[in-house]
Amino acid sequence: MNLSHILNREAEQAFAAAGIEGAPVVLQPAKNPEFGDFQINGVMGAAKQRKQNPRELAQKVADALAGSSVLASAEVAGPGFINLRLSPQFLADQVHGALQSSRLNVAQAAAPQTVVIDYSSPNLAKEMHVGHLRSSIIGDSIARVLRHLGHTVIAQNHVGDWGTQFGMLVAYLVEQQAQNEHFELADLEQFYRNAKVRFDEDPAFADTAREYVVKLQGGDEAVLALWRQFVAMSLKHAQNVYDRLGVLLKPEDVAGESKYNNDLQPVVDELLASGLAVDDGGTKVVFLDEFKNKDGDPAAFIIQKQGGGFLYATTDLACVRYRVRQLKADRIIYVVDTRQSLHFAQLFAASRKAGWLPENVQAEFIGFGTMMGKDGKPFKTRSGDTVKLVELLDEAVERATALVQEKNPELDGQTAARIARAVGIGAVKYADLSKNRTSDYIFDWDNMLSFEGNTAPYLQYAYTRVQSVLKKAGQWDAAAQPVLTEPLECQLAAELLKFEDVLQTVADSAYPHYLAAYLYQVASLFSRFYEACPILKAEGSARNTRLQLAALTGQTLQTGLGLLGIDTLEVM
Ligand code: ARG
């Protein structure tokens, strides 16, 4: 059972003993560890409702808590908070249990769900750029946490592989292959630009491109084969980025827009037949009363254009239906730029009305803000172009290499390269994942690669330091009963035991920065503990207990960073 469950149960019993029924206890981690490990904030509300003195009522609850074996103290403070401090015996037992468990005491979900996560999802007509970083890594860490908690995660990379640009791209591919038999797609961005130039300057080429679009949509095998070739080349680029980033997406997770092509007309027909969609002067529209346009009329969710063409929305409707019916999703998570929030709100509303998204299936738009340059504008190259993701990762590793060489010049080349990779890529990912995803953030190399502050290098280094202490320790007993005496031992233990609660919060809210903030707290607390409580110089059970705390710290940092998709190192 996790820590907050145990404490909630204790608090509820104490509320009952104090004569408070049906009021929430409102248990929270303490704001300031000086005063306790947790606090109960629910007494004030309960007192107000019952017209009782809050401090007196709080004292009754605190008295009832006094007998708890879990707590060392329960003290009334301020207008009626109760500060709780966990008992050293309880903490020691829990640390002992966590060290014995292969999962650091993190339980598997009692009711595992099938969770579909739509993430990364780049358009294949373009090379992956920094705009794709956030969806890829935020989605990936949510997927990792949910899997870790025992849910079945189905990753869906909803790539943009369909639409009119593909006629042009295939036409250009044919031209290139005619000139060079062994044509390789080296630079997708350049390829796209060249194709566009050809399209604009040569009417014959433009005609061919348009012809290909019609043939593609008509299912012409020859053109489809060419299209598949192009898509395969483009996906190879994306896969290369995922592998370098340590994002778990695999080729089999690709379920792009083209997959739903045959479902689009049926989707429109079904919505028309049920009366949910109407013909509005040739355009097929679902009017949604709960969304108003700027004139105050119901917003129009367009599902088919006048000429018969389908839209992004049509594909997403077909896709929701597929995820519910075929993939049997209990929960669907879309990790997409926050600028698409209205599209998804309308998509969910229309899908619910159509009966394709039943009430018992959760659908969540997990939006994120923009990555900004130091100038406060969207991150660009000096010449104002979008930054390719591959180039960003190259630069990260390059910068980390310089850093590693400076810090540790005697490392052999191979080890240095491995460390630089973990630090460089880790820094980029952590800088992003440690921020509240809904806000924009400033991309700053110096900050993210610093060994001080809330950064990947700081946490990776903290892990390495723990490992080096453990290595120097020689013989010690992980299975012995720990004995906690010092305040910082207790504080560190209490923090380590919050791991499961934090993972649960991330799983529920899909905000990875809660995990990052927690790991930073653990690392900072470990470093204070390390200063205050010598480990290797201590003797007897104190030495062993401190080594146990160090080991649990190391395991928590490693598992936690791993769930953010960040590697740890034994030396650095
Ligand atoms: N390809 C889209 C883009 O780059 C993102 C797709 C998100 N997923 C979805 N089901 N619409 O903007």
How would you sum up this structure, described in words?
The chain has 572 residues and is α/β, with parallel strands linked by helices. A four-stranded antiparallel β-sheet has the order 1-2-4-3. It has a four-stranded parallel β-sheet with strand order 6-5-10-11, sandwiched between helices. Helix 6 packs across helix 9 and helix 16 packs across helix 19. The longest helix has 25 residues. The relative contact order is 0.10. The mean pLDDT is 95. The structure holds arginine. Arginine binds next to helix 11 and strand 10. Belongs to the class-I aminoacyl-tRNA synthetase family. Pfam families: Arg_tRNA_synt_N, DALR_1, tRNA-synt_1d. This is Arginine--tRNA ligase. It catalyses: tRNA(Arg) + L-arginine + ATP = L-arginyl-tRNA(Arg) + AMP + diphosphate.
